[in-house]
């Protein structure tokens, strides 16, 4: 048994996850009733990630800022520009695709129990209130805007603290990071449970009627992941971007696809940044920030579903309005983490741009919930993997300026 565990630990995490994925599919199709208890593995894995992520973000950001020395350069300005540019372009691509491949919906009920924000002002108000949330409450509710705000303020307040205090905070940060590596080792079991639950609970029958809508949604996200993002990264690092793109998708996108939570994937992204030898002062802030504002997938979802409603109702759209929708979807996407329900509940806000009634818009949200099994998975995989991609691109740009060679290690 000991030798078997030793051999298992020698297998790369990506291959371990692939094995868990295949086992989950086989069990769900072959013996769904007998294997039902393995669902607990998925719940435990996601629960553990969600539990440790807020604490990790608090200590990492606080420690990085407290120990940051004046004159020591970070890449946050470049990272934020990349986040906002990537989100806007994703929304723009979705708008273009929706005109090239127009989709009509069969509107259904199914979203009566949720309340969307009434306008952009409400979205911004929610975000501002999250910033001043009670720090304990922010950690308990995984409010990353609030956690980031308090971590930054505490870090700034501790910049002049004694070295022993800074060392203590750094030790706590390292200890929490170690806990995260232990949780990540459970990923194969967790993915197996999540895949099993997804197949046995939802199946794929409910998705067949929305094939064209899913094709446009997923097609846009894949286009952003494999065409738009690589072009953006190439302009920064001036070399083949695909080794970095594929590494981020494999090591971050795979787990994000199944956990369907950018917050839960923060520890995974932190580890990947460490493996890429990135500056901890930068990625300890940029990764949790990315989980909040880098929402290319959400921008795609908002644009595609809104224009699907527009086409269904026969509303004509001119070019200026389409561009405004691209900007609005990007703004809404950045605020998605501040609204309960994420990107789907911001669709009525975008629909209001075209005068679509609230009851019709909420039926579109209902469609979103039906296809959410795949839509949310692809959306989260794109969002989360891009956090690392853009963080790395910003730093590699500096490496290139300094004459330092950028080399991406291939996954074993």
Give a quick precis of the structure.
GO terms for molecular function: neutral L-amino acid:sodium symporter activity. The chain is an all-alpha fold and 412 residues long.
* Helical content class: over 70%
Measured by DSSP, the beta-strand proportion falls in under 5%
Question: Which second-level CATH architecture applies?
Answer: Orthogonal Bundle
Enter the CATH topology name.
Proton glutamate symport protein
General form: globular
SS field, number of helical segments: 19
Give the overall pLDDT as a whole number: 80
| Quaternary structure | single chain
CATH class: Mainly Alpha
Low-confidence stretches: 110-114
Tally of strands: 0
- SSE string, helices as H and strands as E: HHHHHHHHHHHHHHHHHHH
Number of domains: 1
Largest sheet: none
Head-to-tail CA distance between termini = 24 Å
**What Rg, in angstroms, do the CA atoms define?**
21 Å
Structural class: mainly alpha
Family: Belongs to the dicarboxylate/amino acid:cation symporter (DAACS) (TC 2.A.23) family.
Function: Involved in the import of serine and threonine into the cell, with the concomitant import of sodium (symport system).
Protein name: Serine/threonine transporter SstT
Catalytic activity: L-threonine(in) + Na(+)(in) = L-threonine(out) + Na(+)(out); L-serine(in) + Na(+)(in) = L-serine(out) + Na(+)(out)
């Amino acid at each position: 048994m000991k030798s078997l565990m030793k051999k298992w630990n020698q297998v790369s995490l990506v291959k371990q996850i692939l094995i868990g994925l295949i086992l989950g599919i086989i069990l769900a199709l072959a013996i769904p009733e007998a294997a039902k208890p393995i669902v607990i593995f998925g719940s435990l894995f996601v629960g553990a990630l969600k539990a440790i992520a807020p604490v990790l973000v608090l200590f990492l950001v606080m420690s990085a800022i407290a120990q940051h020395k004046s004159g020591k350069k970070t890449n946050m300005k470049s990272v934020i520009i990349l986040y906002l540019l990537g989100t806007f372009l994703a929304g723009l691509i979705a708008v273009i695709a929706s005109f090239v491949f127009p989709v009509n919906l069969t509107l259904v009920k199914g979203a009566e129990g949720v309340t969307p924000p009434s306008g952009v002002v409400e979205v911004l108000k929610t975000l501002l209130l999250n910033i001043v949330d009670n720090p304990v409450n922010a950690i308990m509710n995984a409010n990353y805007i609030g956690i980031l705000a308090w971590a930054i303020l505490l870090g700034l307040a501790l910049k002049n603290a004694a070295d022993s205090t800074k060392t203590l905070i750094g030790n706590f940060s390292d200890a929490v990071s170690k806990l995260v590596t232990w949780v990540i080792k459970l990923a194969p079991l967790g993915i197996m449970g999540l895949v099993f639950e997804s197949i046995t609970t939802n199946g794929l029958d409910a998705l067949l009627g929305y094939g064209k809508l899913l094709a446009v949604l997923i097609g846009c996200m894949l286009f952003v992941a494999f065409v738009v993002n690589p072009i953006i990264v190439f302009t920064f690092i001036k070399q083949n971007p695909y080794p970095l793109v594929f590494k981020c998708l494999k090591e971050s996108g795979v787990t994000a696809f199944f956990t369907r939570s950018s917050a839960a994937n923060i520890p995974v992204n932190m580890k990947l940044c460490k493996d890429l030898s990135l500056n901890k002062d930068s990625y300890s802030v940029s990764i949790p920030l990315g989980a909040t504002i880098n929402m290319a997938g959400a921008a795609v979802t908002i644009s595609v579903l809104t224009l699907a409603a527009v086409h269904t109702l026969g509303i004509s759209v001119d070019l200026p309005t389409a561009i405004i929708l691209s900007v609005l979807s990007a703004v809404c996407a950045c605020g998605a983490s501040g609204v309960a329900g994420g990107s789907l509940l911001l669709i009525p806000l975008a629909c209001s741009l075209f005068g679509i009634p609230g009851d019709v818009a909420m039926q579109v949200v209902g469609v979103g919930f039906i296809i959410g099994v795949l839509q949310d998975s692809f959306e989260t995989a794109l969002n989360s993997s891009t956090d690392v991609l853009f963080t790395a691109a910003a730093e590699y740009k500096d490496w290139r300026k300094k004459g330092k060679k950028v080399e991406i290690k291939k996954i074993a």
